[in-house]
Design brief:
This protein is α/β, with parallel strands linked by helices. It is built from 13 helices and 13 strands. The longest helix is centred in the first third of the chain and has 50 residues, at about 1-50.
Length: about 350
């Protein structure tokens, strides 16, 4: 009996130690995440400052493009000609020490012009695969809606699975892989509507708008003695590809409460059961909001998600995935109004 009592007494301190170690372990994880979140916030501020050497305004577009980079997503950037869609994409790529490729989409562009093809080597008397321009890290696809359906289909696999299949062989793309596609909403002659399946591959659809009067005056003063884009040469790479991959892992670790996960699910579910909408959000949309809200939290130096992060992410994630009902379209109802109404109807967790 005495031996049993001694063994029981000796076990008690061990139990107490394990209990006391648990909160210490949790606090160390939290402190580590907050330190990494702070580091990521500093790096993101550096990217913003580099881009602002050239670009005036478009802060929301820049922020969400960075968020897409952090979540391994792709961006569809829409705007009228001359609002710096292509320039913003090029400058963002310059801020990261990775390869950059620009592909101009045209009606006669073929899938092999993007993903590559097999060619015959006369010296070796054998076929070998010649990679296309899609094998890069940051890809700018200019005027994506000018290419026909056959060419658009070539992007399906590469954007989602980060690989290319040619002649029964699969070729993986090196990370990071980030696609920015631009399109003009005004000029529709000679363009092709993007299929819904392809639109769903983009985590965000962003709108590049006109600058305000004040921003336009600042832009003119900035470039009054720089007609030939010398400022672009002053952009420095402030982030490596490895740093970006590291910050993506940090984004995954950002804390989100179960109540906020339920909040996201309820918002997306309401898009599927709404008389104002013909097509609702897919499960990929729910994941997009989750990822985006975590990225926005990290960009603000936080290791946890707030309801405001989710609200900010909803419209860029959903606006290209939802389709208005025929009746609402005839009435001239804006999709943004419907989305804002949906958000208001869902109770915000406390």
């Amino acid at each position: 009996m005495s031996l049993e009592n001694e063994s029981q007494e000796s076990e008690k301190p061990k139990e107490e130690n394990t209990i006391s170690e648990t909160p210490q372990r949790e606090s160390s994880i939290e402190s580590q995440l907050s330190a990494e979140a702070y580091e990521a916030g500093l790096a993101i501020d550096k990217i913003r400052k580099e881009i602002e050497k050239v670009i005036v305004g478009q802060s929301e577009v820049i922020n969400f493009m960075i968020a897409a980079l952090l979540t391994d997503g792709h961006v569809l950037l829409e705007g009228v000609p001359g609002v710096a869609k292509t320039l913003v994409s090029k400058l963002l790529a310059k801020c990261i020490s990775v390869d950059f490729t620009r592909i101009q989409f045209t009606p006669d562009l073929m899938p092999t012009d993007i993903i590559g093809t097999t060619v015959f080597d006369m010296k070796r008397s054998e076929f070998h695969y010649k990679k296309g321009p899609i094998f890069s890290n940051v890809i700018l696809i200019d005027e994506i809606n000018r290419a026909p359906a056959k060419t658009q289909a070539a992007l399906m696999e590469v954007m989602e699975e980060k690989q290319v299949s040619v002649d029964g062989q699969t070729y993986a793309l090196a990370p990071p892989f980030f696609v920015v596609a631009t399109q003009n909403p005004v000029e529709q002659e000679g363009t092709y509507k993007l299929p819904e399946a392809q639109l769903d591959r983009f985590i965000f659809k962003l709108m590049a708008t006109y600058p305000s009067l004040e921003e336009e005056e600042i832009m003119l003063k900035k470039f009054k003695s720089d007609f030939y884009g010398n400022r672009e040469e002053q952009i420095n790479a402030v982030l490596s590809g490895d740093d970006l991959l590291k910050f993506r892992k940090v984004v995954e670790q950002v804390f989100i409460k179960d109540e906020l996960i339920s909040y996201i699910a309820q918002i997306v579910d309401r898009t599927r059961n709404n008389s104002d909408l013909y097509l609702g959000g897919s499960p990929r949309a729910s994941l997009g909001i989750l990822k985006a809200s975590k990225a926005l939290a990290l960009m603000n130096g936080r290791g946890f998600v707030t309801p405001d992060d989710i609200k900010k992410a909803v419209f860029p994630v959903l606006n290209h995935r939802l389709i208005l009902s025929y009746e609402r379209e005839i009435e001239g109802v804006e999709l943004k109004e419907v989305i804002e109404s949906l958000i208001r109807k869902v109770e915000v967790p406390k």
